[in-house]
């Protein structure tokens, strides 16, 4: 938790000055955060300048396989929209504090971004969701926040945003429309839903009973990222678009009873990080095309 706002502002300014010194007057407009297996989005960027997280003062590095850990700056699309891309994100389950996991968002704002595109790999909770489907996020459930585990806990950073931030319209309606329009214009046949993302801190995948609970609460997809970044982005006044790539169907059937002899396969459909990366890889080309089109249309 941030206890000293002045100290944090200094840390943010140091990171911003260092980054500015590397990008030579470049002014990013859109921050893109690549989810698990979706680092290929960065291949859309031209005239690229890459800065490893580890070289930026105050920026922590990521430990997860499939999350390289660098900021990339450059242009997307024929309209040459200036972007900043986080290839590799920091998760709360890795042990980072929220302010470290979300540092890139605040840095993006400091560098002039007004919009953020967040992507993630997520489990499918809504019945009928299949691996490889996409879900545009229209709302979220931040269950951890109900008990006070929250990225904005602590003294408010008055220079960045207000104390009480509404989350009722966190996911920008016109950006969502742009994304659907782009998918249509490109003739993408993959199913694209709209729904509510449920943040579960991880790193375990959910139990069967937890999946049923999440569905009952109104979650359509579940994952271990995104919401802390979205909250910090909304605090800073950034417009937010967020997308889940469904990489697995969450197992929701009751655990086979040991009171019966029925030899139900215990591992039927169990989620794994390997499966997450495989599906992300397969769908990432479509995600890249739609994101390129949508950002080019901003
Ligand atoms: N649960 C949580 N996070 C995830 C999942 C899941 O099933 N799949 C990909 N990320």
Automatic annotation (TrEMBL):
Where the record annotates domain Nucleoside phosphorylase, the positions are: 30-295
Q: Which InterPro entries match?
A: Nucleoside_phosphorylase_d, Nucleoside_phosphorylase_sf, Purine_phosphorylase
Amino acids binding a purine D-ribonucleoside? 206, 248
Keywords linked to the UniProt accession: Glycosyltransferase, Transferase
- Output a single Gene Ontology CC term carried by this record: cytoplasm
In which pathway does this enzyme or protein participate? Purine metabolism; purine nucleoside salvage
Provide the binding site for phosphate. Answer: 36, 67, 89-91, 121, 225
Its GO biological process terms? Answer: nucleoside metabolic process
Gene Ontology MF terms in the entry: purine-nucleoside phosphorylase activity
Q: Name one Pfam family in it.
A: PNP_UDP_1
Domain of life, per UniProt, equals Eukaryota
What's the Enzyme Commission number for this chain? 2.4.2.1
Q: Would you identify the family this protein belongs to, as annotated?
A: Belongs to the PNP/MTAP phosphorylase family.
Q: What does this protein do?
A: The purine nucleoside phosphorylases catalyze the phosphorolytic breakdown of the N-glycosidic bond in the beta-(deoxy)ribonucleoside molecules, with the formation of the corresponding free purine bases and pentose-1-phosphate.
Q: What is this protein called?
A: Purine nucleoside phosphorylase
- Which species is this UniProt entry from? Cyberlindnera jadinii (strain ATCC 18201 / CBS 1600 / BCRC 20928 / JCM 3617 / NBRC 0987 / NRRL Y-1542) (Torula yeast)
The organism's taxonomic lineage, starting at the top: Eukaryota, Fungi, Dikarya, Ascomycota, Saccharomycotina
């Amino acid at each position: 938790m941030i206890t000293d706002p002045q100290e944090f502002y200094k840390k943010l300014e140091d990171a911003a000055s260092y980054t500015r010194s590397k990008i030579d007057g470049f002014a990013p407009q859109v921050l893109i955060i690549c989810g698990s297996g979706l680092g290929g989005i960065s291949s859309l960027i031209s005239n690229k300048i890459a800065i490893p997280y580890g070289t930026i003062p105050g920026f922590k590095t990521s430990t997860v396989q499939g999350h390289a850990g660098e900021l990339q700056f450059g242009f997307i699309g024929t309209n040459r929209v200036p972007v900043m891309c986080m290839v590799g994100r920091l998760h709360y389950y890795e042990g980072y504090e929220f302010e470290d996991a979300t540092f890139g968002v605040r840095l993006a704002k400091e560098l002039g971004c007004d919009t953020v595109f967040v992507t993630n790999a997520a489990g499918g909770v809504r019945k009928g969701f299949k691996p490889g489907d996409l879900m545009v996020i229209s709302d979220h459930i931040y269950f951890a926040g109900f008990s006070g585990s929250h990225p904005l806990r602590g003294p408010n950073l008055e220079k960045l945003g207000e104390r009480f931030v509404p989350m009722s319209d966190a996911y920008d309606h016109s950006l969502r429309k742009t994304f659907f329009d782009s998918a249509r214009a490109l003739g993408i046949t993959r199913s694209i839903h709209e729904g509510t993302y449920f943040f579960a801190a991880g790193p375990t995948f959910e139990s069967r009973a937890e999946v049923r609970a999440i569905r009952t609460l109104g979650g359509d997809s579940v994952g271990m990222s995104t919401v802390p970044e979205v909250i910090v982005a909304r605090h800073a006044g950034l417009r937010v678009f967020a997308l889940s790539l469904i990489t697995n169907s969450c197992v929701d059937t009751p655990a086979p009873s040991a009171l019966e002899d029925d030899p139900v396969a215990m591992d039927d459909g169990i989620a794994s990080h390997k499966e997450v990366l495989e599906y992300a890889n397969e769908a990432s080309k479509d995600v890249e095309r739609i994101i390129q089109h949508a950002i080019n249309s901003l």
